[in-house]
Amino acid sequence: MDNLMQLLKNNIRQYGMIIALILIMILFGALSGGLLFEPINITNLILQNSYILVLAIGMVLVIITGHIDLSVGSVAALVGACAAIMMVDMNLHPVVAVILSLLLGALIGAWQGFWIAYVRIPAFIVTLAGMLLFRGLTMIVLEGQSISPLPEGFQKISAGFIPDFGNAGTNLVAILAGIIVTVLYIINEVKARKNQQKYKFETSSTPLFITKMVLIAIVVNVFFVALASYAGIPNILVLLAVLIIGYSFVMNKTVMGRHIYAVGGNEKAAGLSGVKTKKVTFWVFVNMGVLAAISGLIFTARLNAAIPRAGTNFELDAIAAAFIGGASASGGIGTVFGAIIGGLVMGVLNNGMSLIGLGIDWQQGIKGLVLLLAVAFDIYNKNKRSA
After folding, report:
1. Where are the transmembrane segments (predicted)?
2. 147 CB-near residues (< 8 Å, 6+ apart)
3. pLDDT (tens digit, 9 = 90+) per residue, 193-226?
């Protein structure tokens, strides 16, 4: 028990949000009569929140460096509009349109990164201007109208599923994926534990370690069984998994990731240590532009249309996800996994409140309160550690 309490104490911010997510799911599962846990609803949760989760990954990197990006919703709308024009009006192949859209997102990120990193204009001002500029450009290129329908191949980004094999009545690919993910997770955890023990780092007790692995393995397989019971693994889930694993690796295992944390922790000290702080900040915003473009493509594909008001409030949801997931408002702290948990908290709140019939007024108020409490909790922990 002491070992468990020490583990929770050392990881209170991360585990606190996971526990909160579980409790929220249990609460709305009970209030909705189990509708929250229906396979179709679990799939819809993934599809409905995918574009926010993509933005949250980029936003947490921006926040770690000590900045903010208010323009991502407008960027997503502009890129989605341009992609639709390329495919519908210019008859470009969806693959070509997607590549050009990602380049456009990178160019927009470079534009904003230049003003922030090299001209030293505060990110709040630059991205606020970007939010207005790119929203205006979206309305100009669409001429106030929607563009639809989009090519079926493009729609599969958000609406497609991994093909299954056989006719077993349940999706075997999803079942197999759950087993593979479980095995890979166990191998990775055992390997990490051996490395920690090799270098004399403190580790949890063996019973606690096994219990944690068993619980996570159960959750993973129940999740994939639920997907298998409906239509299988959504294409967008594969993309999210690649982004989460890739960005987690970059932030935890590479020099670039260490430099991003260093810039957010203390930019002057990082500069004196040889970190090219301006270059790091510039590329973080280029990356944010690309991820905003991906988010815009996902949303446009899901809607099967490009509309002038697309992306409204996306930036607020992404920022909330990052902060709820443990990112610090002062920079230098945050994880990709935490941002995903924060995004899921917001997504489950939205979905759960809709299932039980709460109005949009109550939904907005509750989401605002959750964000405030999450940041207050972060500041409380920080003050407690420094005391």
Report:
1. 12-36, 42-63, 94-114, 121-142, 168-187, 208-227, 233-250, 280-299, 319-349
2. 81, 84, 85, 88, 89, 305, 306
3. 888 888 878 777 788 888 888 988 999 999 999 9
